[in-house]
């Protein structure tokens, strides 16, 4: 009874805690082992929320190459292709939320105004559906009629350009660096020599003063900017004596050194059918190392004439140098964008977005931008406007395709694709 009474006296049964040594072991391991280094945390893997990386895991489907990039299927001849290219060279300046200061806008518009009205021959090939041989025949025909002029700069990928004869004459008339006497003499020379690419000293008229004024104005340049000899060069547009003189010195040197070779098939194929250039050009036999009939003495005399012809001038267009720098830099940037992909190819829509600087074009963001709200990257912060003065993506793509640096093909699923060559 006493034991039962003692149990009920507390009113509550209490369990005795078991004594164990696990309590000391349940403490934090950091307290018991202070020398233990904490395990490094694994860096969180970056999550790519963009689907553009999926395009680069495999080759795009190739359903066939695109022959022409022109969206206007009514283009039929070279003058139309030139007008088409000139009208689509630049994008319009954004009116609101552009990120361009007034000073920058003025600089962009000034550069555009000073751009010469020239089109590279590769650009014409890229927008016309005709074959390259047909385009070259048409260009040669327009040159013979005096409706077109071909301007060349040696050693540049985009150095061969076309300009309408009327536009070239307009540049001469509007030039402030020329006096009336020099303008009249030069225009007279252009009318009398519709296919001339080389200007012999004293042929323009007006004396050395007029020629110096034309050089300062940018309408004439030294012979070093023009290829000397060779098929497909401007020597075919020179007078007959100058043609042989231009090729004579190089032919003699090749024969003496034993390094003569035939013209390239690519150059001959571009020549108009039935012309002298289609069979190798003047003196092709001697240029390849052949001879006979006292040709050695004749070529020696032509070598002396070639040395004298180095003092002649070549037709040029004011602003052609800036045009070459701009086009070369733009095409190089386009190919660099393609080179960042795994296989050097990507859909045209994605390449266009990267050229524009990743500017979003969905309706919601465009509406926010129209209200003056910030939405993504401003156009003025992109290379398209900071370095290239707003060159259109389609225009640069046509230049790259005409130069043989890229090719455009149909994918059948994501539109057209662009591949770097």
UniProtKB/TrEMBL annotation:
GO biological process: positive regulation of Ras protein signal transduction
Residue ranges of the region described as Disordered: 1-53
Biased composition (Low complexity): 19-28
Cross-referenced Pfam families: Stk19
Family recorded in the similarity comment: Belongs to the STK19 family.
Protein name (database record): Serine-threonine protein kinase 19
Lineage: Eukaryota, Fungi, Dikarya, Ascomycota, Pezizomycotina
């Amino acid at each position: 009874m006493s034991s039962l009474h003692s149990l009920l006296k507390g009113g509550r049964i209490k369990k005795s805690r078991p004594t164990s040594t696990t309590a000391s072991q349940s403490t934090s391991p950091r307290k018991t082992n202070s020398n233990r280094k904490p395990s490094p945390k694994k860096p969180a893997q970056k999550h790519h929320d963009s689907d553009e990386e999926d395009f680069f895991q495999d080759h795009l489907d190739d359903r066939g190459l695109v022959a022409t990039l022109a969206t206007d299927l009514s283009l039929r001849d070279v003058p139309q292709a030139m007008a088409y290219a000139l009208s689509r060279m630049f994008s319009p300046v954004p009116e609101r939320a552009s990120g361009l200061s007034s000073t920058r806008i003025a600089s962009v518009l000034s550069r555009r105004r000073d751009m010469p009205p020239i089109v590279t021959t590769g650009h014409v090939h890229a927008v016309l559906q005709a074959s390259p041989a047909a385009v070259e025949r048409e260009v040669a025909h327009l040159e013979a009629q005096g409706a077109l002029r071909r301007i060349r700069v040696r050693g540049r990928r985009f150095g061969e350009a076309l300009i309408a004869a009327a536009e070239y004459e307009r540049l001469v008339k509007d030039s402030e660096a020329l006096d009336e006497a020099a303008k009249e003499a030069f225009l007279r020379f252009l009318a009398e020599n519709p296919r001339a690419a080389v200007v012999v000293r004293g042929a323009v008229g007006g004396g050395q003063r007029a020629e110096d004024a034309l050089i300062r104005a940018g309408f004439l340049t030294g012979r070093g900017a023009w290829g000397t000899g060779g098929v497909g060069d401007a020597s075919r547009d020179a007078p007959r004596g100058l043609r042989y003189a231009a090729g004579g010195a190089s032919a003699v040197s090749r024969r003496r050194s034993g390094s003569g070779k035939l013209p390239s098939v690519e150059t001959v194929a571009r020549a108009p059918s039935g012309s002298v250039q289609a069979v190798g050009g003047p003196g092709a036999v001697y240029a390849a190392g052949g001879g006979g009939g006292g040709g050695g003495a004749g070529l020696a005399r032509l070598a002396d004439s070639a040395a004298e012809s180095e003092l002649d001038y070549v037709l040029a267009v004011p602003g052609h140098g800036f045009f070459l720098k701009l086009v070369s830099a733009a095409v190089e940037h386009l190919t660099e964008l393609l080179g960042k992909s795994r296989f050097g190819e990507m859909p045209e829509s994605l390449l266009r977005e990267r050229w524009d600087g990743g500017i979003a074009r969905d309706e919601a963001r465009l509406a926010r931008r129209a209200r003056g709200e910030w939405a993504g990257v401003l156009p003025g912060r992109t290379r398209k406007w900071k370095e290239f003065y707003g060159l259109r993506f389609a225009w640069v793509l046509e230049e790259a395709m005409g130069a043989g640096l890229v090719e455009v093909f149909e994918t059948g699923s994501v539109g057209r694709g662009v591949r770097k060559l």
